[in-house]
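Folds abound. Consider this:
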Amino acid sequence: MPNCIICLGSNDFEKREKLCFARKRLSELFPSVCFADECDTEPISLTNPNWFLNQLASFYTDKEIPEVIVELKDIESKAGRTTADKALEIIKLDIDLLIYGDLVLKPEDMTRQYVIDGVRQLHNNK
């Protein structure tokens, strides 16, 4: 089974609750999931000055990439993410699939320090 690494993030005023909701749902969908520590990060490429709360997670799955992405988008939607909020740069919940097995799907994200630190922590916790 491929190992997936994902990044969760929120700049919403209820960001801790949004990540908590995502962790609960991810644990139900992917029982092997483990989480790195949360970290506060400055916004990248946004004019909204609200800082993000980010967290990396990893899990094994027999689902294909499109199926995993559908599950992640469903969690975002259930956390209240809307197109209207995104236009206002309010990200209630964003979950990106960074790595699926040997495929790096978001190479630019992999250069960010909080991602590097989170991947290192996940690797050390195995």
Strands lie at 3-10, 34-35, 39-41, 52-60, 94-100, 103-104. The chain has a mean pLDDT of 95. Residues 22 and 115 are 18 Å apart (CA to CA).
